[in-house]
Amino acid sequence: MAMSDIENVLNAAMRLPVGARAAVVAELIDSLDETEPAEAGVEEAWVAEAERRLAEIDSGVVKPVPWPEARRRILAAARGEREVP
Fold first, then answer.
1. 32, exposed or middle or buried, with CB in 10 Å at 0-12, 13-18, 19+?
2. Residue (of 66, 68, 15) closest to 24 by Cα position
3. Any idea where the domains of the chain sit in the sequence?
4. Residue 57 near residue 49, CB atoms below 8 Å
5. Cβ count within 10 A of residue 52
6. Mean pLDDT on 64-72
7. Residue range 48-61: mean pLDDT, rounded
């Protein structure tokens, strides 16, 4: 696929309403899943990790970060900027 084709698809997707864009993203992510079955125990390990993280949030050990703040931090890190405490 040529870069212009990718740009055309992206431009068309960006004109969609937010909910539709989210649906497109979900479908694209699903399309990246491996076609081969996961190694034994991988799904169970992800479930255990999610449950562990949720327990940390519920207990107050970890404080969730609102998406705008998380996005700001992610973009800063991608630019190589250090987070100042």
1. exposed
2. 15
3. 1-33, 36-85
4. no
5. 9
6. 92
7. 96
**For the chain, what's the residue count?**
85
DSSP string, 8-71: HHHHHHHTS-HHHHHHHHHHHHHHTS-SSPPPTTHHHHHHHHHHHHHHHHHHTSS----HHHHH
Q: Find out whether 42 and 49 touch, Cβ atoms under 8 Å.
A: no
**Tens of pLDDT, residues 14-50:** 999 999 999 999 998 888 876 666 677 888 899 999 9
Q: Answer for the pair 45, 53: CB distance below 8 angstroms, yes or no.
A: no
Average pLDDT over residues 40-66: 93
Nearest to 13 by CA among 34, 31, 27: 27
